[in-house]
Amino acid sequence: MLAPKKILYFILYFFILLNPFFCESQTVLQNIASRKTESLNGKWQAIIDPTNVGDWRQIWLEKKPEKKTDFIEYSFDGSPLLNVPGDFNTQMPEITYLEGVVWYKKVFTYNKTANKRYFIHFGAVNYVATVYLNGKFLGSHEGGFTPFQFEITDLASNGNNSLIVKVNNQRLKDGLPGLGYDWFNYGGITRDVNLVATPDSFIEDYFIQLKKSSVKEVQGWVQLKGTTTAQTIKVKIPELGINFITKTDNNGKAAIHFSSKFKLWSPENPKLYEVIIESETDSVRDEIGFRTIETKGTEILLNGKPIFLKGTNIHEENPLTAAKAFSESDALILLSWAKELGCNFVRLAHYPHNEYMVKMAEKMGLMVWDELPVYQHIEFATPGVTDKMETMLKEMIARDKNRCSVFIWSISNETYSTTANRNEALIDLSKKCRAIDDTRLITSVINNQGYSNNILDVNDPLYNYFDVISLNEYIGWYVPWQGKPQDTKWKLVANKPVIISEFGGEALYASHYGPTDEAAYWTEEYQEQIYKDQIAMFKTAPNLAGVCPWILVDYRSLGRMHPIYQNGWNRKGLLSDRGDKKKAWYILQDYYKSIPEKK
Ligand code: GCB
Fold first, then answer.
1. Glycoside hydrolase family 2 catalytic domain location, by residue (predicted)?
2. Are 499 and 548 in contact (CB under 8 A)?
3. For residue range 522-542, what is the model confidence (pLDDT) as tens digits?
């Protein structure tokens, strides 16, 4: 029999291990790029644990034999090395398809300086990360695409420290995304890891953007954290001669409000300003652009003027390495293709991509669609799921809210209207989203429209709660045409701007064989025809404010199993996995060229 105390420890132990929110990371450490950091990227030792016995063996204790008769059945010494950042699946052939546990270890040196605080910051770990420092549980985080950090100021020792991260990319029924999704489940410490130093009292977060509908008024806030939070705050924009001074309130928060004559950010002129945020004890530097985004009737207005959004969907994958994208050079490859296609926006599907993507898109003049991984099979009624949605929403907005390129928060993709609690959960999330940030548009992507007799019936009541009607439709691929594309009729549930957020079909690059009017031969001609028909159909769409093909480039998806044409790749790319242009590329590029930048 276990003693009651032991039972209590047992319960506590499992509660900590199984409840990723038990030791929630501090939600924000804004703009670490502008701070003193030491990169923990590089080679990490790794123990592959496909049967998940590492918890039972307590790997984080790094036990060593003490007596002659002792042996320990794991060790980081002699273990393989994995690159961080990077997915683990593509680094060792034997774990290509692993959806399970890998333990990572890194030794780092710590030299604590008085009056400083230190954090271990992870850009992202897919999917659950459980972190230990010197044999002690530090914290855990669920969600594969947003940053988190843990403070180690008083927990690390001067000299060498051992950091161990258990990474588990097993799909969860109540995860975000859930069990089913059409992309490769890359596990691992997939983004940068940094040891970040801040002053004792520091600028934890800030929000500096134009007030909704105003092209000259900045409205935002600065949040301090630490022992001395009653401080003077300055926000400076040297190029505009701005030196706004204010004081924090009792909670360390200061309201920011000033006006100027900004050169507004736009795809044609992606102007960013150096912005310096200072407290008495801290200072950070950012590059911030200013623009407004709103809808008026059936149009989307950027800086008060109607804009037609020419987009492309992108997954966070570098097809040339057939691995998770994580670096600036990966971002450059993907976004240069989007520019060449003639895009003015990119939909970063279906989860928040790494920060390099968002920042580079901003510099290149690409508007960004940021999305939560609330994808298809989400169990909205399962306890805990809506809390996870809210946490991820906050993490996404926390990271990207100062990026003016981000014009829309997409809080879900193709969820099923028949799932219990789906409407309530998404409506509630949209309200929370707007309460945190009312300066951007909000959408939820839907694909449950009816289509018969050549009538597209867009009738999901959810649209009433969002700024834009975003719909995915695969007419010509999953759904055969029901008449001439140019004769399509529409019924719209709400008189709002419409973005066709996905359309397309598959083609294997250089496949021209077999009847080119039959889908089953994956020919470029078949895909090309879909694009021609879709463009003809776009002209019938009332309120059309933008289009966005699925997808820029072929990407890995193991459910795509045709051995000749797919081989584990979704072939809807306009580019092949080697970056070759398919015929449909030119059709869309010409269409984009034919649309003037301004409506
Ligand atoms: C969709 C999904 C996207 C898929 C795509 C497809 O509707 O939103 O994630 O991958 O269809 O290829 O079928």
1. 294-567
2. yes
3. 999 999 999 999 999 999 999
Contact 236, 283 (CB under 8 A): no
Where helices occur in 173-257 by DSSP H, the ranges are none
What distance, in Å, lies between the first and last C-alpha atoms of the chain? 76
Q: Candidates 502, 522, 530, 572: which one to mutate for ligand 1, based on the most atoms within 8 Å of Cβ?
A: 502
Structure tokens at 572: 């809807």
Residues in the ligand 1 pocket, defined by CB under 6 Å:
182, 350, 413-414, 447, 472, 502, 550, 570, 572
Average pLDDT, the chain: 95
Q: Contact, 537 vs 490, CB < 8 A? A: no
Q: How far is CA 200 from CA 31, 264, 429, in A?
A: 17, 36, 34
Residue closest via CA to ligand 1's atom 9 equals 182
Domain boundary among 199, 224, 241: 199
Determine the Cα–Cα distance for residues 550 and 17; give it in Å rounded to an integer: 39
290 within 8 A of 269, measured Cβ to Cβ: no
* Whether 58 and 167 share a structural domain: yes
Of all protein residues, whose CA lies closest to atom 13 belonging to ligand 1?
Answer: 182
User: Does the pLDDT of residue 16 top 70, yes or no?
Assistant: no
544 alpha carbon, distance to own chain's centre: 26
Domain count, the chain: 3
Q: How far apart are CA 315 and CA 306, in angstroms?
A: 28
Instruction: State whether the Cα torsion 516-521-523-529 is positive or negative.
Output: positive
pLDDT, one tens digit per residue, over 417-469 is 999 999 999 999 999 999 999 999 999 999 999 999 999 999 999 999 999 99
Q: Looking at the domain assignment, is residue 595 inside a domain? A: no
d(CA 292, CA 438): 11
Tell me how far apart the alpha carbons of residues 338 and 592 are, in angstroms, rounded to a whole number: 11
Q: What is the 3-state secondary structure (H, E, C) of 537-552?
A: HHCCCCCEEEECCCCC
Same domain, residue pair 225 and 177: no
- 8-22, 122-136, 535-549: the lowest-pLDDT one: 8-22
Q: Is residue 574 part of a domain?
A: no
Q: How confident is the model at residue 597 (pLDDT cuts 50, 70, 90)?
A: low
Q: Assess if residue 275 is contained within a domain.
A: yes
What pLDDT score does 30 carry? 97
